[in-house]
Amino acid sequence: MSGPSLWFTRHGETEWSRAGRHTSRTDIPLTSEGEREALLLGQAVSGTDFDLILSSPQQRALHTAQLAGLAASVDQDLTEWDYGELEGLTLDEIRAIYPGWTIWDGPWPGGETAEQVAARADRVVRRVLDLPEGASALFVSHGHILRVIAACWLRQPARAGRLFSLATATLSVLGWEHGEPAVRCWNIPPSHASALADGLAS
Question: What pTM was computed for the model?
Fold first, then answer.
């Protein structure tokens, strides 16, 4: 152990996440499946004491935290990547306009650049790193910003987030290995996370 650990989860399923539609500022609710995922997530982390719990301000994240039994404070920096004019579009629809497009390389018409998202990610990572050694934090947020946060934790540029796939309501934990930042577990479905959470918390 060389510092605090960071646990995080993407919010539960929404209609747009299920359809692969880029969802940032559009404030849509969880589906019934998303609510079920959040309840399972709560079971997985129920035995873990967190020193800091933060959530995106969007209802899909806040409701996930509520259903999971997490008393989260809102942090605006955990808002999803602002997709600007690409909001609500699928990847195929975006690539019909911008062939070969990825969120990591842009363009981002009317939205945030990778560098702007990385600046937000760096701020929330620093909040965790300011905690004492052995402390743990939990974030409830969104797919792309969490992948950038993971890259920031690992001291990599935002674009390294492309290497991490992140499904809804999964549990991931970032920590340390021989004094260096490391991934302890990644993208664990809530239905399989209880035993893992018990082991990581012990």
Answer: 0.94
Q: Which two tokens stand for residue 114?
A: 């990778």
The number of domains in the chain is 1
| The pairing of beta strand 180-188 with beta strand 52-55 | unpaired
Instruction: Express each pLDDT in 149-180 by its tens digit.
Output: 999 999 999 999 999 999 999 999 999 999 99
Q: What is the domain extent for residue 130?
A: 5-201
- The CATH number assigned to the domain holding 134 equals 3.40.50.1240
**Which residue in the list 37, 80, 142, 144 is annotated as catalytic?**
80
Active site residue 80: yes
Spatial separation of the C-alpha atoms in residues 153 and 151, rounded to whole Å? 5
Question: Which parts of 22-69 are beta strand (E)?
Answer: 52-55
